[in-house]
Amino acid sequence: MSESSDADRPGRASVARAAGATHRILLPAVKLDLAVLLLALGCLWFAVVIATLSRLSEFLLLFGGSSLGALWLVWRTRRALVRARTQLDREESDGGP
Questions:
Q1: Rounded distance, CA 34 to CA 70, Å?
Q2: C-alpha to C-alpha distance for 44 and 50, rounded to whole angstroms
Q3: How far is 97 from 85, CA to CA, in rounded Å?
């Protein structure tokens, strides 16, 4: 079987990977948001461990923080992919990068 990439198929360019020898990071803002979110959730976990809260309160705080963080990442990723797809379509219509 032969392996074919998205570059081999017209109309199927990837927004997650750049074509060519130089690979660019297309989603740096999302990576930064993930790092900040993990740091914030770690701080929240330490605060919950130190505070004298009931188990239910601990669970609700950690679950709520994790859920909000996940929703934030989904929203930011979708925005970044739409922006990358728009830029890719614009570059294809212009004839190149």
A1: 9
A2: 10
A3: 13
Eight-state DSSP code of residue 7: T
Closest C-alpha among 15, 7, 27 to residue 89: 15
Q: Are 16 and 26 in contact (CB under 8 A)?
A: yes
- The H-assigned helical ranges of 3-97 are 28-50, 55-94
84: nearest Cα among 2, 28, 16, 5: 16
The two structure tokens encoding residue 22: 């130089």
pTM, rounded to two decimals: 0.63
User: In sequence order, which residues have a C-beta less than 8 Å from that of residue 31 and are 6 or more positions away?
Assistant: 25
pLDDT tens, N- to C-terminus, the chain (97 residues): 445 555 555 555 555 555 543 345 667 778 888 999 999 999 999 999 998 889 999 999 999 999 999 999 999 888 888 888 888 888 778 765 5
Amino acid symbol at 64: G
